[in-house]
Design brief:
The chain contains ten helices and six strands. The protein has 364 residues and is an alpha+beta fold. Helix 8 crosses helix 9 (273-283).
């Protein structure tokens, strides 16, 4: 029995180790350096006088695609973490269940041995052979107790065996989900790296002066969008005060300014957009979904005019980017690869909506 138990524990530990490898952040599941093919529009744009505005739009498209893929990657990673934890718990239950089953079988074996020592006769037979009325009555009580105990033991054995079978089925199902998540994570990683590689190739084809002008065009586009947003008069309506947790979240997010963007990162040295917002709120004592899309789906929606510092602004129709509002028409965010955490105009990109992580908290 001892050897069997050690084998079960070793199996469970092997399961835990395998799960850890599958779910480990940054594990390379596929070739991380796919060879990008030139984009159809890049060549003509550069050849025809290098239309930098067209390049800017192309880069924006590529980095937005990378942002969507990053959300897919982060979602797959979050699911893998949960599934791996469930597999580990099931493995522990299987080990405990096997140990319980062994003890129950030992008890059943002891009962059978006791019957053998009694001459192989069932308790009822010994009762019938008794000549003493008191012994008969005492024996009848013991027989009833024995029947109940035996029935309870057999019932517990059956339930334990059924539980083990269910644990095994559940573990198998979770393992399949974990494997599917691994593939989804690897596919998202390929998408991200492909889009970023294409964008970097496009930028590297520019001369230094053109790269500087491109950066100016990006700023001009953001300023134009921000100006239009402010000209709508929206800032006159936004006067919400931050909650205590909101203040802490803003303090954390703004303290990360200057740190590099890195897809899939949650700090403390690098961040992606939702990594920054989720960690900022975690530092304030409030756990929120990891991805911008899940933040949009699961957190309470707030009207823009009711926005207050600490609220999250979700951008683009596919909710592929998120930033944190810090007041006075500004937000802090991790923009994209090649950029650092920075403050920008809250209206510098198309706003999908606003969500509030601490919707149950008052203001101060």
């Amino acid at each position: 029995m001892g050897t069997g138990k050690r084998g079960l524990i070793a199996t469970a530990v092997a399961v835990v180790c395998a799960v850890t490898v599958l779910a480990a952040p940054g594990t390379a599941f596929a070739n991380p350096t796919p060879t990008p093919s030139p984009t159809p529009s890049a060549g003509p744009a550069l050849a025809a006088g290098k239309d930098l505005e067209a390049v800017r739009k192309k880069l924006d498209k590529l980095y937005r695609a990378a942002g969507r893929a990053t959300d897919e990657y982060n979602a797959a990673e979050e699911k893998a973490d949960k599934q791996s934890a469930e597999v580990v718990e099931l493995a522990k239950k299987i080990v405990k269940g096997q140990e319980k089953l062994r003890k129950l079988k030992d008890r059943a074996g002891a009962a059978a041995a006791a019957q053998y020592r009694g001459g192989g006769l069932p308790p009822e037979a010994h009762l019938v052979l008794s000549d003493d009325p008191q012994d008969f009555l005492d024996g009848a009580g013991r027989v009833r107790e024995g029947h109940h105990a035996t029935k309870g033991l057999l019932g517990e054995l059956t339930r334990t065996q059924e539980d083990l079978e269910q644990y095994a089925k559940d573990a198998s199902a979770q393992w399949k989900k974990l494997e599917a998540g691994r593939k989804a994570k690897a596919a998202a990683q390929k998408k991200i790296e492909k889009q970023i590689a294409q964008a970097e190739k496009l930028e590297s084809a520019l001369q230094k002066e053109e790269q500087e002008r491109l950066a100016e065009l990006e700023k001009e586009a953001a300023n134009k969008a921000q100006t239009a947003w402010l000209d709508s008069g929206i800032l006159d309506e936004i006067d919400g005060k931050a909650s205590e947790q909101g203040k802490k979240a803003v303090q954390y997010a703004t303290a990360q300014i200057g740190k590099l963007y890195q897809w899939g990162a949650e700090g403390p040295k690098t961040y992606d957009c939702s990594g920054l917002t989720s960690q900022a709120w975690l530092s304030a004592g409030r756990g929120i979904p990891r991805t911008s899309q899940e933040q949009w789906k699961r957190l309470r929606h707030i009207d823009i005019q009711d926005m207050r510092p600490g609220d999250l602004i979700i951008y683009f129709g596919d909710a592929s980017h998120v930033a944190m509002y810090i007041g006075d028409g500004a937000m802090v965010h991790a923009p994209r690869p090649g950029r650092t955490v920075t403050i920008a105009g809250a209206g510098s990109m198309p706003i999908l909506g606003v969500v509030r992580p601490d919707a149950d908290a008052g203001t101060n």
